[in-house]
Inverse folding.
C-alpha cells in the first residue's frame, strides 16, 4: 500500500516524525538487505513526496532495517521486458531526473538536511541513495562499492552529480572503473562518509537533533545556498547569499530570534 500524508509505513519504507521535527526514514525490506526492486523505487519516491509536504519537518535521518543499509539493485527483479508505456531513461519524469535518478537525487531536493546512517552493506544504488544526503555516517566496517561497471553499466542513479565535490577525481575514477570494495572507515578518508561510528543511527540522530534546534528558516536557506554553490560563479553566490539573508532578517520575529540567539551565545562565553 502506498505511503500517504496520514499513513507512513508500508512493506518497503517507514517514516516516523518526532516531536523535535526529526523524521526517522527507514528502508524496510530486511529479508533482501533492502535491495532495490521496482516497488522499492516507487515507495522511496513516494516517501520523498510525503516528506516534501510534511509539516513540522526539520531534519531527516535515513537508515535501513536489518543487516544492511541497501545492497543495491535487486537484479532478479529486473529481468522482465519493460512495458511499452514505461518512460525511457532519457525522459525527465521528475524534474531533471528519471525514476532511477530520483531515488537518490530527491534527498538533495528536499528543503531540509538529510543524514544517512550506513551499516552492513551499501553497494551500487544503495551508495547513490546514501550519497544524496547532506551528511553520511557509516559504521567503520560497512562494505561499500560502486558496482555498476561490474555488470557492464555506468553509474546512472545520480552518482556523478552527487559525488562531485566529495571525492578526488582520480580516486573516483578508480572506484568506478574497478568496483573495488572499501570500508566505511576508508569511505570517510575518501570523502564518501562524513563520520564513522559504531552506532551510525544514534550518531546521525544526535546530529539531526542538534540541527533541529537551529533556526529552521536559516537551515533551509543554507541548504539552498549549498545546492547552487558548485555551479554558480562568485557574483551569483554573493547575490544569492544576500537574498537569503535579507529574507531571514526582514521579519520582526526572525530578527528577534537571531538577536536572542546571539545574546545567549555571548552569555555562554561570559560564563567560561
Amino acid at each position: 500500500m502506498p505511503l500517504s500524508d496520514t499513513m507512513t509505513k508500508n512493506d518497503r519504507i517507514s517514516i516516523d516524525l518526532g516531536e523535535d521535527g526529526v523524521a526517522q526514514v527507514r528502508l524496510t525490506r530486511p529479508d533482501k538487505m533492502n535491495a532495490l526492486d521496482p516497488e522499492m523505487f516507487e515507495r522511496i519516491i513516494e516517501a520523498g513526496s510525503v516528506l516534501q509536504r510534511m509539516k513540522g519537518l526539520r531534519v531527516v535521518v535515513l537508515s535501513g532495517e536489518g543487516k544492511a543499509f541497501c545492497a543495491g539493485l535487486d537484479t532478479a527483479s529486473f529481468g522482465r521486458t519493460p512495458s511499452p508505456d514505461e518512460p525511457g531513461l532519457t525522459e525527465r519524469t521528475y524534474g531533471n531526473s528519471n525514476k532511477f535518478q530520483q531515488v537518490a537525487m530527491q534527498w538533495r531536493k528536499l528543503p531540509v538536511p538529510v543524514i544517512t546512517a550506513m551499516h552492513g552493506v551499501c553497494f551500487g544504488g544503495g551508495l547513490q541513495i546514501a550519497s544524496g544526503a547532506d551528511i553520511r555516517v557509516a559504521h567503520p566496517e560497512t562494505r561499500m562499492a560502486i558496482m555498476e561497471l561490474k555488470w557492464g553499466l555506468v553509474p546512472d542513479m545520480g552518482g556523478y552529480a552527487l559525488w562531485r565535490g566529495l571525492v578526488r577525481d582520480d580516486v573516483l575514477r578508480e572506484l568506478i572503473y574497478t568496483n573495488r570494495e572499501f570500508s566505511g572507515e576508508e569511505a570517510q578518508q575518501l570523502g564518501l562518509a562524513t563520520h564513522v561510528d559504531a552506532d551510525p543511527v544514534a550518531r546521525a540522530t544526535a546530529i539531526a537533533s542538534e540541527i533541529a534546534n537551529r533556526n529552521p528558516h536559516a537551515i533551509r536557506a543554507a541548504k539552498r545556498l549549498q545546492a547552487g554553490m558548485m555551479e554558480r560563479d562568485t557574483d551569483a553566490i554573493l547575490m544569492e547569499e544576500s537574498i537569503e539573508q535579507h529574507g531571514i532578517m526582514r521579519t520582526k520575529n526572525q530578527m528577534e530570534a537571531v538577536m536572542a540567539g546571539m545574546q545567549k551565545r555571548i552569555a555562554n562565553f561570559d560564563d567560561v
User: Anything to note?
Assistant: The domain at 216-271 is CATH 1.10.12.10 (Lyase 2-enoyl-coa Hydratase; Chain  A, domain 2). The longest helix spans residues 252-271.
